[in-house]
Structures are given as C-alpha cells and as structure tokens.
Write a structure and sequence with these properties.
The chain is of the alpha/beta class. The protein folds into three domains: 171 residues, Dihydroxyacetone kinase, domain 1 (Rossmann fold, 3-Layer(aba) Sandwich); 134 residues, Dihydroxyacetone kinase, domain 2 (Hypothetical Protein Tm841, Chain: A,domain 3); 209 residues, Alpha Horseshoe (Serine Threonine Protein Phosphatase 5, Tetratricopeptide repeat). Helix content is 42%, strand content 13%. Strands 1-2-4-3-5-6 form a six-stranded mixed beta sheet, with helices on both faces. Helix 9 packs antiparallel against helix 16 and helix 11 packs antiparallel against helix 12. The chain is globular. The two termini are 21 Å apart.
Length: 576
C-alpha cells in the first residue's frame, strides 16, 4: 500500500499555507488557529476585500491566489472539506475594507453553509458582505442543488483581483464576478482516481479502457463512464458540450486547461492545442490560453477544460499583472486575428484564538464514550461516505468529538453541558457540511435539555426535552441546508425520531429504519446528488451517524445500551 506524504494526525492545510508564504517571498502571512492566509502587500487602490477558500487538496487554489492582483485572504479546510465558518470569519475580519467584503464561493453545500454563517457574523459587526457564487461544472448539470464550482473559479478570482486593484466599487465587483461566472463552463475527465490519504489506495475504480466523464474536484466519480477515446475526439466532445452551454462568445473565448494533480504538463499542453483547434473549428476565436495545474484533486489522473465567453469590458483585468504564487499570467492572442483584420502589515506567527479551554479537564464518561464510539466507527462511516464522493464524514465527526472533549465542563457535567460542548465544537471547529449541521442539531437539543418541561413529579424529563430539541434542530438544518425528509440526508433519520413525545427505544429504532431506507433514495441534496442512482444500495452516512448519536443519547438516559439496537447499527454501518 502506497503511503501518503500527508503526515498522519497532522493537519496538512496549515503546513501547506506555510509553504505558500515561503514561496511568495513572504508577501503573504499565515495564521495558525483558525488557519488562513492573507496578503501583506495588497494594492493600495483597493476599496473592497476579496476572500475565498475551500478544501485542501486543490492546490494552488485558493491560498496560492492571495496577493496583489488576487485575493486578500483565503481559508483552507482539511482535504476535500470546506473551511469552517470561524476560519472564513477570521480571515475576512483580518482584511476587511471600508468598501466591503466579497466572498467567492464554490457551489458546494459545506462551502455555502460556512461562508453564509461567516457572512452573518460579519454583517452583525457592520461589514457589508456579498457572495459571488461559482457554479460552472457541466458534470453536475441538471441537479436541484446546482452545478459544482470548479475551474472557472480561477477566471473569476483573477478578473476580480485585477478589477479590485483599480478601485472598482463593491456593487460593480459583485456584478462583474457574477457575470464572469455566468459566462464560464467546465467539464473534467479522469482515467484514474486520486490516492486516498488514509488508505493509500485509489479512492474509486475506473475500469480498464474506460474514462470517467464529468468527475468532481473532491474525488467524486462521474455520472457517466465512457470508452476512453483518442485525445482529439475527447476534446472535440468536451468543447462541443461547453460551447453548447455558453452564451454566444462573439468577442472570443478564454481557454483554461487545468490538471487535476496527476497529469503531466506535456499532456495538458497537448489538450490545450486540441481545445484551440476545436474552438476555432466551431467558428470562434480564442483570446488566450492558460495551461497548468490550478485546481487539483490531490493526484487524480485527469484534466478539466474551462471555456469563458470573453467580454471586452473586463479583459484588461484578465491580462492585469499580479503578485501571487499560483494565479495564471495570461498572454493575449492577437485580436482581431490576422485573417479577420482589413497593507504593509508585518507577518506574525500567532492565532486569532477562540475562548480558552482547559485542555486538562476530564470529560464526563458519556462524552468520552461518545468520542470513542465515533472513533471506532470512523472508517465505516468514511467508507459509506466514499460511495457519495469524498469519504470524510467519519473523520470529521470523530475530530469534532475530540474537540468537544477539550470543551467539557468536567466529569460531573450534566447532559445539557455535554451537548453544549459538542455543539460548540462542531459549529466552530469542524468544516464541511456535516460538522456545522450536526452542531445546529446538538445546539438545539442542548438548549431544550437545559430548560425542559417538568413532569407531574416536578422532575426534569430529559427524554421529552431531547425530542423537542431534535425537532428544533431539524427545522434549523432544513432552513440552512434547504433539505427535507426524502432528500437522502441526515433528516431522513432525524425526522422519524421526532414523531413521538420522548426519546425512547421506538424513536431510535425509527431513526435506524429511516437511515436504512436512504439506501433506496436518490439524493437531492449534498454531494451524493451529483451521482444520481450510482449511490443507491448504500445508506446515507449522515443519516447513519444520526442514528448512532440517538442510540448513544438513549444509553445516557436509560443507563445502558440496548443490544438489539446496537446490532441493527452494526449491520447498517457495515453495509458496504
């Protein structure tokens, strides 16, 4: 088994940031906790700050795009995991400008949720914040959650960076970014999956002689496998699909050929030449060609092709110089073509620290047991999650519970305090979509248990309060994520558990049954929605995790585990 160069037990994202800072000549600075990078020498003409971010594994995006002519700051998540909202908030607050803050956000559930929460926190402090959403991926066209954000992010951030340096206003920058995104489309292909950092094995199998057409940058398989064609035929198909989705590019086309991490520059250059040939054969002119690895998917063996319908009004920003380590430096092709012509801040190590916690405090037995349960279930949950794309939910939830142990109120903590510690850890310290959404649920249950109704004997009824909190949490998740029961999400286990008045054996059994039933659902939310029926036959990992949590809560309330429920959970978790 090949071993990953990512060090076990150590976050790769911050170490990568340090490397970016060194490569920049120290024109950018890094912050350790929460992790982000920001520009030390931005253009003095800027009125508006540009901030972006996304999972590690896509380097040089986004940290490599920070600097004059690019972003003001970027927040990296863990591998294929969105940054958590505390990172985005801290990075944005660090570089905020009087004209406002613009978040460039790729269309993924975790990114959108965490950037939205950070924006709410920033607005509460008086900052003007807007989102420019990038949703260019044709491989995920036609899904309710919209297209994924991929290679066009490079074009959007380069154009916005150049424009911001000239003093363009907040409203005009937002409109510009959205216009560039609307005029861009991307398709990605792969002949081999990325190597899983955890197992050292390919994250998914590609049959011999086959090609995945429409893969995602988080290691998602494509909705379609095709026979591997010759490169010219493949690029002809890709260009045809992209041009068919673009507005008429009467002012020419920008071509971006991007490696996914495991494809050499020789092959990328060959693909670029074929792309230009195909675009011109379709009757359009190419204004510039950019070749390189800008949005990787670890070491996936493949490439993406992005076409952007050029607009003369903003091309000067595409050509503009920059001082970043990762953005392209485009060169203009002759136009019209010959045949048609008759902060001065010092870098400091340190941290925007969260509230101090006593790392030596001993957690309650229940909280420690919950953390042990999820660590033991980590690989099984990751394996289920891999069926839907990225394979990280077990690691994220286990990491969140380890963080909760540091927030523990001590060995004698009551249930409300333990739930509050878990909620805080998931909301502030765990990225992706699973962490924040579980944080919302735990927060609602903690609030309900902290002030429950009393029974006739005047005793707090935690079992009833838990169900009240679960209902509140369900509503919060639906508001933030837009999901509903039946969408193949954690709500499919959560909703059945709230049908009664108390958390009892029947409620947990209903949650397990709801999680099991997701095996027969086609996802309408989250990354699994991009795979259509290819995820059928396996339960949703978020729903399974909810069932595990509810079984643990029942054990806390009743003083011991239910052997039959545990057996049902074991069967569900190993449904590989």
């Amino acid at each position: 088994m090949a071993r990953s160069f990512l060090t076990d037990g150590v976050s790769p994202s911050f170490h990568a940031l340090e490397g970016v800072a060194l490569a920049s000549g120290r024109s950018v600075a890094t912050n350790a906790s929460p992790a982000y990078v920001w520009a030390l020498r931005p253009s003095p003409g800027r009125q508006v700050a540009l901030v972006s971010g996304g999972g590690a594994g896509h380097e040089p995006m986004h940290a490599g795009f920070v600097g004059a002519g690019g972003l003001d700051a970027a927040a990296p998540g863990e591998v294929f995991t969105s940054p958590h909202n505390r990172q985005v908030y801290a990075a944005s607050a660090r570089v905020a400008r009087p004209g406002g803050i613009i978040h460039v956000v790729k269309n993924y559930t975790g990114d959108r949720i965490n950037f939205a929460i950070a924006a709410e926190r920033l607005r509460a402090e008086g900052h003007r914040v807007a989102e420019v959403l990038v949703d260019d991926d044709l491989g995920s066209e036609g899904h309710e959650v919209g297209r994924r954000g991929t290679g066009a992010t490079v074009v959007v951030e380069k154009v916005l960076g150049g424009a911001a340096d000239t003093g363009v206003s907040f409203d005009d920058l937002v409109a510009l970014g959205r216009r560039v995104a609307e005029r861009s489309r991307t398709i990605a292909v792969a002949s081999a999956a990325q190597t899983s950092p955890e197992t050292g094995e390919p994250a998914f199998d590609v049959a011999s002689g086959a090609l995945e057409y429409g893969v995602g940058i988080h290691g998602e398989t494509a909705a379609e496998s095709i026979d591997h064609p010759e490169l010219a035929d493949l690029v002809d198909r890709m260009v045809g699909d992209l041009l068919g989705a673009l507005p008429d590019p009467d002012e020419g086309v920008l071509v971006l050929v991007n490696g996914l991490g495991g494809t050499g520059n020789l092959e990328l250059a060959h693909a670029a030449a074929e792309a230009v040939r195909a675009v011109e054969a379709a009757g359009h002119h190419v204004r510039s060609v950019v070749i390189g690895t800008y949005v990787s998917a670890l070491d996936m063996r493949g490439f993406s092709l992005t076409l952007t319908a050029a607009d003369e009004s903003w091309l000067e920003h595409w050509w503009a110089p920059h001082d970043t380590v990762g953005l392209p430096t485009p060169r203009a092709l002759e136009w019209p073509p010959p045949e048609a012509a008759a902060t001065g801040e010092t870098a400091t190590a340190g941290s925007d620290a969260a509230d101090a916690t006593d790392a030596t405090a001993q957690p309650s037995g229940w909280l420690a047991g919950l953390a042990e349960t999820f660590e033991a279930r980590r690989r099984d949950l990751n394996a289920l999650d891999q069926r839907a794309g990225d394979g990280d939910i077990g690691t994220n939830l286990s990491s969140g519970l380890q963080a909760a142990l540091l927030r523990s109120a001590g060995p004698d903590a009551d249930l409300a305090a333990d739930l509050s510690a878990v909620a805080g850890a998931f909301l502030d310290d765990v990225g992706g979509s699973s962490g924040p959404l579980f944080g919302l649920v735990f927060s609602a249950v903690a609030d309900a248990v902290a002030g429950p109704d009393a029974d006739d004997a005047g005793q707090a009824d935690d079992a009833a309060a838990v169900v009240v909190g679960l209902r509140d949490g369900l509503e919060a998740v639906a508001r933030v994520g837009g999901a509903a029961p039946g969408d193949r999400t954690l709500l499919d286990a959560l909703a059945p558990a709230t049908e009664g008045s108390r958390l009892d054996r029947h409620a947990v059994a209903a949650a397990i049954a709801g999680a099991r039933a997701t095996s027969d659902l086609v996802a309408r939310r989250g990354r699994a929605s991009y795979l259509g029926d290819r995820a059928l036959g396996f339960p949703d990992p978020g729903a399974v995790a909810v069932a595990v949590v509810l079984a643990a809560l029942l054990e806390r309330l009743e003083g011991g585990p239910d052997a039959d429920l545990q057996a049902d959970l074991d069967e569900l978790l190993t449904a590989q």
